[in-house]
Amino acid sequence: MDSPAPPEKVVVLLKATGDAPILKQSKFKVLKSENFVFISEFLRKNLKLDSVFMYLNSSFSPSLDERIGTLHEAYNVDGKLIVNYSTTPAWG
Amino acid sequence: METSSAMAPDIQREHWRGSVALKLELHPDEVTTVPPPEPLFVLAPRLGYLPQVAEQALEHFGSVLPPGEDEVWFEYQGVPLKWHIPTGSLFDLLAGGRGGYPWCLTVHFRSYPRDALQPLEGDGVQASYFNSLKEAAYVLTGSSSSVMTLTKASQQELWQNVLEAKDEEFFSNLSKMDLTRPTRSRIPVRVYCREKVFDSFTGWKSVEYASKSVVLDSEDAEDLTLRGVLQRCLGVSLDGEAGSGREVVAAGVELESDTNLANVYPHLKNADMWLYLVVRPSSRA
């Protein structure tokens, strides 16, 4: 059984791919309860992009209604959830 | 495994052949003729996706549509349906267990609800399927390379097997990939949980979703039971009063709360290698 009070936030690392603009700060703490769509909105707002493609561990795109906590638990690398983003489809 | 392996191919075949009978009616706003067109009755494969029946629907309703571009979408109880969820799981989640068969849906070809649904363009369904398969590959083998290195031709072939629900060809094609030889003892499970009535007020807000990579070599056998997985995944309890008001369904089959998912997965997994579990209010209540 999981303990009832796990840390509320997890570390998300945002990595640009292709010609996507780079963020000033690439490491963030995100609430576990946020959905993945939060990352896409964050990127679009901060980089002023119309659309952004996102991948985990340079391979697949999770569903936008997936929770950050769930994704982190399943796919973290050394405790970080690595999100690659690009302005065009990358890993087809 | 308790299930006899001789039965396994039969279960898998029945699972792949399963369909949901749909009764499609064109939305009144898009009808330009008097009298309105007859509804269309069609069988939609359980493992497939709703847009698969779009072509048939367009053939049936195409002549009465107002001018414009055709963008198909489906609606149930006034709510646009997410097309990336396999048809069988959508049915089990939203309509199953409540009687009313065939499943009556409204079909639209105009005014695609871009705020509510992900856009569907070109081979969007195929892309969504392969993305899901990639994610499953990552859970099963620790890498998505088995799917990413597929040639265009083998992708097409695999997708065609899914569309035509040909399980033997599909698994024979799949066996050429490393997916069937998992290197990590984990299985990918998607859970959709509906606690309330699904209608135009509640809509998708009535549905909770989570995916889980379930570790098989856990020391505690309870971790692998349906009860244990749902508890950890969405905090859904199958015990006590709350539990008795719920039922859990995979591929249209109701599962007992102490079912070991490692035994269910090989037989009832979907074509994207995910096991879809649906939790819904009990039909006995």
From TrEMBL, chain A:
Record's GO cellular component terms: Atg12-Atg5-Atg16 complex; autophagosome membrane; phagophore assembly site membrane
BP terms from Gene Ontology: autophagosome assembly; autophagosome maturation; autophagy of mitochondrion; glycophagy; piecemeal microautophagy of the nucleus
The keyword Repressor appears for this protein: no
Lineage: Eukaryota, Viridiplantae, Chlorophyta, Chloropicophyceae, Chloropicales
Record's function text: Ubiquitin-like protein involved in cytoplasm to vacuole transport (Cvt) and autophagic vesicle formation.
Pfam family name, one: APG12
Organism: Chloropicon roscoffensis
Stored InterPro entries: Atg12 (IPR007242), Ubiquitin-like_domsf (IPR029071)
Bilayer-spanning residue ranges: none
UniProt protein name: Ubiquitin-like protein ATG12
Gene Ontology molecular function: any one: Atg8-family ligase activity
Top-level lineage group: Eukaryota
Automatic annotation (TrEMBL), chain B:
Main location per the UniProt record: cytoplasm
Cellular component annotations (GO), alphabetically ordered: Atg12-Atg5-Atg16 complex; autophagosome; mitochondria-associated endoplasmic reticulum membrane contact site; phagophore; phagophore assembly site membrane
4Fe-4S is among the record's keywords: no
Cellular location(s): Cytoplasm
Domain Autophagy protein ATG5 alpha-helical bundle region positions: 125-172
Gene3D superfamilies reported for this sequence: 3.10.20.620, Autophagy protein Apg5, helix rich domain (1.10.246.190), Phosphatidylinositol 3-kinase Catalytic Subunit, Chain A, domain 1 (3.10.20.90)
Positions of the Autophagy protein ATG5 UblB domain: 186-279
An MF annotation (GO) of this entry: Atg8-family ligase activity
One Pfam family per UniProt: ATG5_UblB
Segments forming domain Autophagy protein ATG5 UblA: 16-109
Keywords of the record: Autophagy, Cytoplasm, Isopeptide bond, Transport, Ubl conjugation
Gene Ontology BP annotations: autophagy of mitochondrion; cellular response to nitrogen starvation; piecemeal microautophagy of the nucleus
Subunit and interaction comment: Conjugated with ATG12.
Function: Required for autophagy.
Family listed: Belongs to the ATG5 family.
Protein name from the UniProt record: Autophagy protein 5
